[in-house]
Amino acid sequence: MFTKMKNIDSAFRYVRGFTMLVIIGCVLICCFTVYKSFESVSQTRDKVYILANGKALEAYSSDRKDNVPVEARDHVRTFHKLFFTLDPDDKVIKTNITKALYMADESAKRIYDDLKENGFYSGIISGNISQTIQIDSVAIDIKEYPYRFSCYAKQNIIRTTSISKRNLITRGSLRNVSRSDNNPHGFLIERWETIENGDIGVENRK
Prior knowledge:
By secondary structure, this protein is of the alpha+beta class. The chain folds into two domains: 48 residues; 143 residues, Nuclear Transport Factor 2, Chain: A (Roll). Helices cover 47% and strands 33% of the residues.
């Protein structure tokens, strides 16, 4: 009788131990499954799908701080291209300048008003002059905020008989603002000024 009870007790302990192992195993599997699920959801949120030419292209989102230099340089390039790309068409000039002024503060508006008052844009239209800009480089200092920048570019002023080439160097600072359709990079150019804008040479047109 004693031996039988002992066997029953041993069997009970064995079953209990086995049951505990199964429960612990299930808990570990559940925890691992939950962890992998959250990880998968997190990775999915970081994915962005872009529709281009009828095809869905996969991209990955990243923190703004990872892209500050790239976005800042593109913001400065876009602003300068809009501000300095001019054709002898009042509507084109107003459209480009309006887009550019959304990306900068009153320092750019003040320069635009001075040029307009001095008859610069009227001269562009009456003289059938076009102006283009080629951005050589944009230097951004992100060590301190607001971010300081310098833009190095060349201008081509195209007249009927000649093309004048000018060197252009500007500088200013960038402040973070909300993104919008008019300002997709979320920067605002402040204290914008021209450091150099001298003639390089003149090329006769044939």
